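[09:14] KT: can someone run the structure on this one? pasting the chain below
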Amino acid sequence: MLSSPFSICWFFLCFVLILQPVIGYAKEGDKSTTVSPSLYKKLSKVEKLIEKKAYSQAQQIISKALNSAKKGSYEEAVTLRTSASIYALQEKYSKAASALSKCLALKTLPEKQEQQALLNLGQIYMAMAQYNKAVKVLQPWLQSNPRPDAEISILLANAYAQLKQYRKALPHVEQAIKTTKKPAESWYQLNLALYVELENYSAAARILQNLVARYPEKKQYWSQLASVFQQLKNYKKAVSIRSLAYKKGLSTTEKEILELVNLYFTIDLPYKAAQLLKTELNSGRVKNNSKNWEMLANAWTQAKEFDHATQALGKASKLNPKGRLYQQLGRIYVEQEKWGLAVKALNKGLLKGNLKQPGNAYLLLGMSQYEQKNIKPARQAFTNARKYKRTRKAAGQWLAYIASDKPADQ
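[09:31] RB: done, structure tokens below
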């Protein structure tokens, strides 16, 4: 979540305009912050080559100029800075950082140019993923500049985030957002990521509410906001968010729909869970499988809609390779005293097999047959039930009862 969202492309625009501080050349009585006519011509040629992206030629000219520049002079600093520019534009960041570090070590740049060079060095360290070095350069830079720069604040926030120093990153990203009329979406994403890493879900919820308001068409923010409310155990708000997203057509995948169904269960709204699940099973957006039909059956059961529940469980039973659900359906029919339906369901369950407690299925089958006065099949079912330890005693009692009943056989 904390992959660095910033782009390094804009970092080097200042490098392309490197000639601006030295646009004039030295005249009699000038200070040391000007360059000779010879170097000026070379820098002008380099600028044109940079515009054409002829970086190798530009670097050759600068290398020669660097060899002839007076050691420790302003001209050497300007040449090193230009060399760093060319390396950076070629994404040769290690060489760019080396040249710029040498430039700054000379301490011959005017204050404004030095600050810009420091900023460029920090940006290069970010591009190299050397976040500790970037922090050491950018933090003092921000402190020494009275007017905070939002882009640099974000850069520093990213550096701290990559170092997993989330609390240090927070004030910088929030300062950037606060001082910008139209903050970038990625800034809010970084702010959100920091709060999630710090497990401050209340703050994360506030940011996500802002993102939902700004970008209502982006369903990931609706989903994330609902997840945060779930993390805060505020399930009613989570349901409200997911339900609204569903109505807006932003929750269309099976996963998203089932998340809303499960939330309805969580806040004890099984009827709504059942309605939604039935609709989406019929639409085909929720898979037509045993698991989902069983979930629908449970929803209808909790909503006390037993006829709907048995219908759903019947479909689930057909789709399940094991007999478990038919046994469950048979038990429900026994409770409802629907003996004929119970017999059909239990026989299907036993036929499919793989039952954890087949003795119970035989016991229920025997009871259902007996209630229909089908004594012979009832006796056979109880005889089968007596083979299993858990149902042996009850089955024996039923067989004894049938034996004492008159007439004994039918």
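[09:33] KT: thanks! The two ends are 73 Å apart (CA to CA).
[09:34] RB: yep, looked fine to me
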